[in-house]
């Protein structure tokens, strides 16, 4: 028996009209661009090339760009599904290939759909801290982002005439609805679904949405009202962190200086209100107290404004080290924090001391610090 293959013309639902496709496409162009630019920013901060400069003020900027990254990515999922629904009858268009440009266009749409789905799915799994794959997420997510944005640009260039026609005032298509669903109805459902997805997750970073966002499972929970990604037990640092032999070793051109916890506590203390802004999109502001990096470097005989590499008691963790640029080591709000929200730092938040710097991704806020090399 042969299954009947439908013809492109037999899909008469209003959801498949050009005007619907173009409007959803426009929304996707906005969310994809936002997602790409904010993702690029996050990548550059974590792997800064020589020309790149990221300021330490305003302290909340990365919180906003990374929140926008995750929110625009989440919003893209229902939009992409709606767009594919809108255009899938084209799969039944015949002949399959009309010309070489037509073949290339179809191929580019295949690459576009595959890379866009890959980005949205891997991003979503990362937000859920679920890694059902065996590649290193940030590298692959970053590489495929270029493929996705490249094929988006090709797609927009190719479709520009269609988009113009579809968004023009003159409505040549009837607002037909043989299946009862109007164009407006399909679009309204799409915007509503997207809105619900955004509100359900945005509470991870937008404080007043916290109570509404059923899916923002991280914010506000954890010791001292700040979430924890990697616990002290998970990082296998508990004995070293609690050891009376713990010393902070500061290495600079002036030699090596060691500080006990009591000595750090005796240095001038600075308090700052700073957010932890995780790449996964959650963020949480808190009050941190400790030795500012300018004070620490001076106490060690070095000078603020030089890059410093930070090492943790944690062995083998991918976030066990970080580099603080000079922009941050000269900022008095960059702390080697000893206290969080008025209490001695919890073991899970990095006891005896951890880095907390303004306007930085969470992955660079190294916990259980044992060494600073200027
Ligand atoms: N040594 C070490 N520091 C680390 C991490 C880690 O895995 N190991 N995780 C980082 C990440 S991804 C984030 S978001 C912040 C979270 O800090 P918190 O657990 O105190 O909220 O710590 C950072 N510091
Ligand atoms: Mo993080």
Description:
This protein is α+β, with helices and mostly antiparallel strands. It folds into two domains: 8-209, no CATH class; 225-373, Oxidoreductase, molybdopterin-binding domain (Sulfite Oxidase, Chain A, domain 2, Alpha-Beta Complex). Helix content is 42%, strand content 14%. It contains nine helices and ten strands. The protein has helices at 18-46, 61-87, 100-127, 137-167, 183-202, 238-242, 261-266, 293-299, 326-329, and strands at 248-252, 255-259, 270-277, 283-292, 308-312, 321-324, 335-340, 343-344, 354-356, 369-373. A five-stranded mixed sheet has the order 2-1-10-5-6. Strands 3, 4, 7, 8 and 9 form a five-stranded antiparallel sheet that branches. The protein is elongated and about 80 Å long. The mean pLDDT is 89. The structure holds the ligand Nc1nc2c(c(=O)[nH]1)N[C@H]1C(S)=C(S)[C@@H](COP(=O)(O)O)O[C@H]1N2 and molybdenum atom. Molybdenum atom is lined by residues 229, 278-280, 362-363.
């Amino acid at each position: 028996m042969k299954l009947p293959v439908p013809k492109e013309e037999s899909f008469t639902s209003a959801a498949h009209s050009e005007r619907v496709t173009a409007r959803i496409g426009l929304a996707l162009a906005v969310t994809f661009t936002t997602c790409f630019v904010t993702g690029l920013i996050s990548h550059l901060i974590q792997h800064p090339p020589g020309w790149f400069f990221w300021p330490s003020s305003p302290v909340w900027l990365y919180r906003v760009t990374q929140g926008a990254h995750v929110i625009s990515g989440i919003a893209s999922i229902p939009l992409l599904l709606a767009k594919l629904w809108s255009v899938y009858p084209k799969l039944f268009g015949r002949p399959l290939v009309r010309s070489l440009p037509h073949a290339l266009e179809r191929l580019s749409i295949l690459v576009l759909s595959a890379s866009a789905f890959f980005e949205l799915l891997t991003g979503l799994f990362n937000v859920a801290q679920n890694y059902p794959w065996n590649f290193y997420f940030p590298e692959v997510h970053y590489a495929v982002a270029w493929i996705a944005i490249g094929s988006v640009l090709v797609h927009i260039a190719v479709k520009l005439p269609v988009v113009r026609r579809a968004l023009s005032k003159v409505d040549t298509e009837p607002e037909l609805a043989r299946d009862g669903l109007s164009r407006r109805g399909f679009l309204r459902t799409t915007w509503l679904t997207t809105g619900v997805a955004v509100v359900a997750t945005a509470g991870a970073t937008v404080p007043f949405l916290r109570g509404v966002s059923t899916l923002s499972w991280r914010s506000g929970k954890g010791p001292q009202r700040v979430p924890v990604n990697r616990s002290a037990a998970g990082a296998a640092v508990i004995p070293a962190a609690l050891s009376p032999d713990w010393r902070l070793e500061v290495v600079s051109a002036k030699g090596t200086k060691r500080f006990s916890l009591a000595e750090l506590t005796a240095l001038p203390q600075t308090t700052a209100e700073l957010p932890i802004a995780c790449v996964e999109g959650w963020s949480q502001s808190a009050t941190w107290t400790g030795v500012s990096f300018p004070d620490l470097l001076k106490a060690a005989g070095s000078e603020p404004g030089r890059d410093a590499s930070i090492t943790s008691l944690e062995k083998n963790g991918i976030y066990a080290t970080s580099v603080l640029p000079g922009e941050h080591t000269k900022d008095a709000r960059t702390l080697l924090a000893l206290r969080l929200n008025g209490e001695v730092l919890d073991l899970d938040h990095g006891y005896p001391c951890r880095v907390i710097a303004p306007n930085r991704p969470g992955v660079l806020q190294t916990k259980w610090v044992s060494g600073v090399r200027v």
